[in-house]
Amino acid sequence: MTQMKSFFRKTLTQMFPETTVRYRAYKNLIGNKDSYLYLSGWMQSLGADKPINKDGRPVPWMNYSVVLFLEERLTPDLTLFEYGSGYSTFFYADRVRSVVSVEYDKKWFDLITSKAPKNASLMLKEKDVDGDYCRVIGTTHDSYDVVVVDGRDRVNCVKQSIPALSDRGVILLDDSKRPRYEEAISFALERGFKTLHFEGLQATGSGVKRTTILYRNSNCFGI
Question: What is the value of pTM for the model shown?
Answer without folding.
Answer: 0.89
